[in-house]
Design goal:
One of its GO terms (biological process) is pantothenate catabolic process. The chain has two domains: 174 residues, Flavin prenyltransferase-like (Rossmann fold); 213 residues, Rossmann fold, CATH 3.40.50.10300. The protein is an alpha/beta fold. The protein has 14 helices and 19 strands. Helix 13 links the parallel strand 16 and strand 17. The strands form five sheets. The protein has an eight-stranded mixed beta sheet, sandwiched between helices. The chain has a five-stranded parallel beta sheet with strand order 2-1-3-4-5, with helices on both faces. Strands 6-7 form a two-stranded antiparallel sheet. Helix 1 runs parallel beside helix 9, helix 4 packs across helix 6 and helix 5 crosses helix 8. The structure holds cytidine-5'-monophosphate. The site of cytidine-5'-monophosphate (C5P) has 13 residues, from helix 12 and strand 16. Cytidine-5'-monophosphate binds next to helix 12 and strand 16.
Length: 427
């Protein structure tokens, strides 16, 4: 699974640097963590300052660097206890033998060792040292103590060392460390979403983008859909704890984190994939795709040559994917979209009934500021009559925000049991 390094908001990392030659790598580590969206504060031991200056870390982290336990000025800003509480994770990189020994013994004679004792956040250590010092019994004993105490040890790499030795003791590359930290927060986020998310435990299938209907081996009929709304919805559903399968027509968008993507070209392929997903068990089906209404009746085997002033291509109607799924016996909660250029609400309400949908989101694609290629959208959501839910007007916002609101609308409808009672009986 690939991890998008730009989606971890509001997490605080302390990078604690102790005195080893690998300290230069920590500068890049801070940079990478910042790139990933973390707020980073750096703590340096006295030894670390012999290898690299606090100023470097201050510039890279955008925060003051913490170096001393008993510095009144620093304590007035963010004291060591406050710093310990601020952190969501403490990453000690590089961690020297001395630092490991202090942690294992529970000493508290400088800022870093005090911070270690004072924080409730997970502590990770990335030991970096000479291979003989790494192998020393005391170091291994200390490491075992730390592991028993719940510290996460990032094993050093083997290779050539600054001292000329070859062996275990090199700090992993900063990109690798930043990736491990990012993955950790993704996993934590995912675990929470899978338990408490609005769509926890649901399998959501989404169609997105245009379809491409071949005329001959080099030409096709398609439309201007970019797939942005469907991809934003896939990301929002995943963030809400759902398992997401995204059936995408030809678009140039990256697959959102954690989403399973199936690429298709034509409407027939999109239908086939949709039916496959339905068989695997689908709770919510969201049709954002702009499916071509017609396909070419006879796709030419070879490129059609230019001849005459007119070319007639016979078209036949494509199956309606969302309507087909809605007719199945074990139908999921069905969400459709309607992109219209006029009479938006009237047409959308008609489609809601005609396609037997549970919910429809409609927008006016004649507005140049929203719709197809735009990053923003504004929509009106209608629910099928039995839900007895009023329409929702989603004001113009980014497609991500609209997607989030649509997830909420789906969740609300799912928890607002359809009314099975015949309205006449109520009288
Ligand atoms: O094209 P139309 O306005 O009828 O599309 C409304 C909804 O139906 C959309 O959700 C679209 O994804 C879906 N649709 C479909 N298969 C088609 C045509 C439309 O699933 N062949």
């Amino acid at each position: 699974m690939s991890f998008d390094l730009s989606v971890i908001p509001n997490k605080n990392i302390i990078v604690a640097v102790s005195g080893g030659i690998a300290a230069y790598k920590s500068a890049i580590l801070v940079r990478r963590l910042k790139d990933a969206g973390f707020d980073v504060r750096v703590v340096m031991t006295e030894g670390a300052q012999a290898f690299i200056t606090p100023l470097t870390f201050q510039a890279l982290s955008g925060n003051p660097v913490h170096t001393a336990l008993l510095d009144p000025e620093a304590e007035a800003g963010m004291g060591h206890i406050e710093l310990a509480r601020w952190a969501d994770l403490v990453l000690v990189a590089p961690a020297t033998c001395d630092t490991l020994a202090k942690f294992a013994a529970g000493l508290a004679d400088d800022l870093l060792s005090t911070l270690y004792l004072a924080t409730k956040a997970p502590v990770w250590v990335a030991p970096a040292m000479n291979q003989q010092m790494w192998a020393a019994k005391a170091t291994q004993r200390n490491l075992n103590t730390l592991i028993e105490d719940g510290v996460h040890v990032i094993m050093p790499d083997a290779g050539a060392q600054a001292c000329g030795d070859v062996g275990l003791g090199r700090m992993p590359e900063p990109e690798d460390l930043a990736r491990q930290v990012t993955e950790y927060f993704h996993r934590a986020q995912r675990a929470i979403a899978e338990k408490f998310g609005l769509l926890a435990g649901k399998h959501v299938v989404i169609t997105a983008g245009p379809t491409r209907e071949s005329i001959d081996p080099v030409r096709y009929i398609s439309n201007h859909s970019t797939g942005k709304m469907g991809f934003a919805l896939a990301a929002a559903c995943y963030a809400a704890g759902a398992k997401v399968s995204l059936i995408a027509g030809p678009v140039s968008l990256d697959t959102p984190n954690g989403v399973r993507r199936m690429n298709v070209q034509s409407a027939m392929q999109m239908l086939e994939q949709s039916m496959d997903q339905l068989e695997k068990g689908c709770d919510i089906f969201i049709a954002t795709a702009a499916v071509a209404d017609y396909r070419v009746a006879h796709v030419a085997e070879h490129k059609i040559k230019k001849a005459g002033d007119e070319l007639n291509v016979a078209l036949v109607k494509n199956p309606d994917i969302v309507a087909t799924i809605a007719q199945q016996e074990k139908r999921p909660f069905m969400v459709g979209f309607a992109a219209e250029t006029r009479n938006v609400e009237e047409y959308a309400a008609g489609k809601l009934v005609a396609k037997k949908l549970d919910m429809i989101a409609c927008n006016d694609v004649s507005r140049p500021d929203i719709g197809f290629a735009s990053d923003e959208n504004a929509m009106i959501v209608f629910f099928a009559e039995q839900y007895r839910l009023p329409q929702r007007d989603l004001e113009k916002a980014s497609k991500q925000e609209i997607a989030q609101q649509l997830v909420e609308a789906i969740h609300d409808a799912l928890h607002h049991k359809p009314d099975e009672t015949d309205p006449d009986e109520l009288k």
